[in-house]
Amino acid sequence: MAKPHELWSAMSDVPGYRPIPEGAMPTHPFPDYRSNPVRVPRRPLVPIPHTLSEVTGPVYGHEAVRTAEADLTTQHAGAPLGERIIVWGRVIDEDERAVPNTLLEIWQANAAGRYIHQLDQHPAPLDPNFTGAGRAVSDSQGNYRFVTIRPGAYPWKNHDNAWRPAHIHISLFGPSFVTRLVTQMYFPGDPLLPLDPIYNSVPDPRARERLVASFDLEATVPEWALGYRFDIVLRGRRATPMEA
Amino acid sequence: MAGLTPSQTVGPFFHYALTDDHTVSELASPQTRGQRITLRGRVLDGEGRAVPDAMIEIWQADAEGRYDHPDDHQDRPRDPTFHGFGRCASDERGCYTFRTIKPGPVAGPGNTLQAPHILVNLFARGLLKQLVTRVYFAHEPLNDSDPVLGLVEDDGRRATLIANAEGDGSYVFDIHLGGASETVFFET
Predict the structure, then answer these.
(1) How far apart are the first and last CA of chain A?
(2) Which of A60, A66, A240, B146 has the most beta carbons within 10 angstroms of its beta carbon?
(3) B contacts of A197 (beta carbons < 8 Å)
């Protein structure tokens, strides 16, 4: 079977996106994540060229996002329990160009490690002042910023005594169908990271480390909240259709 | 070059952030041009069980084959009432439904024309990265020359990408994540 980049150079006449570097994305089947094998195809993925359909995508600009949606600590009558934090960063592409005006959607557990979702059975308390969902749009420089609380770790049934490291789910679109990304942001120094199959599903350890935010003293607001920086890198685009 | 941010699973708890308030299952407004269709189906795992916690996103051109995107420079008018993006969660039986219009043919590589098609991104607990497929429509003459369908050599496999029309005017596209009828998924 032809490799994707051969197809692209032979067939595309819109500039496509760069192929995904080896090891940078999880591959399947990945049995350490127990629910993975029965939900992934057994036959090889079919490589296709990037046509106009793949290089376009939902810009999503027709739905207004309010500034207040980026603050998860002011959605209720009182303040949520837990450690208030600021999570910010830049959305860029592999060529380090800003990705402006892209929608980011986040969701997370509360400080006790409990999601408001009705299927979460973890016997930790819900917080009446915390839902755990927020949205923001990157600015003209690709910057985004959320105010939230640090989520707690929580158990899951993947294996004996399995615990997810604290994380924030992040969904973003980017400029095309193939830049669509759903990921998770982790916290530096979390002792659960080496034990977590989802984190460790990324083959390249350097790529894996890009899922961990860094503590940011400059973004930390005195007397108020710690800052964490999490830059997000989406696929970059070839300059011309024929570029190798 | 900056290194890519890896994908991680959407997990089981996305609904309250992504689909409870931000589902787009009706893509067309009363003013939208084109043939109204319902696109529906089930998401099934490798053992044929319903996947009740998937998120399905679709992306398509309007009835003229134009995308609502600045990079679509095709020389044909765009329908300003149609944006082409849909999103919903599967229900407890694994079912999903979109009401939309049938897209027109879109320019393909070289001088080809792509048959009418809808792109699908599928997310679910258990998937570490979304699965990508395309919905084509039965009995479209352009299917035979479509540059992407043509990359799937086996007839039986190619059939997994074709939605069939039911009597009620809906097109049915089941997504089999595995098993004997495993849907063709693409590497993009």
Answers:
(1) 19
(2) B146
(3) none
